[in-house]
Design a protein that fits this description.
CATH class: Alpha Beta
Number of helices: 6
Structural class: alpha/beta
Distance between the termini: 58 Å
CATH superfamily: Vaccinia Virus protein VP39
Low-confidence stretches: 1-6
Shape: globular
Helix content: 25-40%
Strand content: 15-25%
Largest sheet: 7 strands, mixed
Mean pLDDT: 92
Order of helices and strands: HHEEHEHEHEEHEEE
CATH architecture: 3-Layer(aba) Sandwich
Number of strands: 9
CATH topology: Rossmann fold
Length: about 220
């Protein structure tokens, strides 16, 4: 009987992904559903060719338009903090590479993602199609305004730093909903979880220091 062909590259990727998952678990990302979603999402498809070799490292990497694909630990931490359930509708502010939306799509019923850079959005949509992620709905627009036509949402994730409490986005949460966002104007921001108390007020929980690009008003002009 002939031997089954052995793909060393795939085995290497699986081993590196396994090490990444162990690293995330050791840092406190322990929700099995979140870890399974990260493990099932090929991060190397979301980074520029120049950085493919670093895809499975726990570090942020540059993408087009001066933006970044977040460190896997931060992706895991924010996803875990959001407490997404299978029937939830999730709003993501800042599609970027599409990596975070792809992970959320494995946990939620629908993901609505807004991006201000058309170049990034086009590339992310191409990746979603290639991966057959049919429950992600995208929009080119100002993320700070959210997506009022589709509100309210069960969960909202903001992947750029809001200068202050994101009130326009909080207003688009369902009663009992959760919003996770980096908040602050400096190089280092505070990751905050807002939990709607069902009566129009929010409980605010701080989750640690993070570094994100700023949330900018309007849509970007690209050459």
């Amino acid at each position: 009987m002939a031997d089954t062909p052995h793909n060393g590259a795939e085995d290497g990727d699986r081993a590196r992904m396994g090490r990444l998952i162990l690293a995330l678990r050791s840092q406190g990302v322990t929700d099995p559903k979140v870890l399974n979603a990260i493990e099932a999402t090929p991060r190397d498809l979301f980074v520029p060719e120049l950085f493919k070799e670093q895809s499975f490292e726990d570090s942020a990497l540059p993408i087009d338009c001066g933006q970044t694909i977040s460190q896997p630990f931060i992706v895991g931490l924010m996803t875990q903090a959001l407490k997404v359930e299978p029937r939830h509708r999730v709003l993501e502010i800042g599609t970027g590479s599409g990596y975070q939306a792809a992970i959320l799509s494995k946990l939620a019923r629908y993901v609505y993602s807004v991006e201000r850079y058309r170049t990034l959005l086009t590339e992310a949509e191409r990746r979603f199609k290639a991966l057959d992620l049919q429950n992600i709905i995208t929009r080119f627009g100002d993320g700070g305004e959210g997506w009022p036509e589709q509100a309210p949402f069960d969960r909202i994730m903001v992947t750029a730093a809001a200068p202050s409490e994101p009130r326009a986005l909080l207003a688009q949460l369902k009663p009992g909903g959760i919003l996770v966002a980096p908040v602050g104007r400096g190089a280092v921001q505070t990751l905050v979880r807002y939990i709607d108390d069902g009566e129009g007020a929010f409980r605010r929980e701080t989750l640690g220091d993070v570094r994100f690009v700023p949330l900018v008003e309007g849509v970007a002009r690209e050459l």
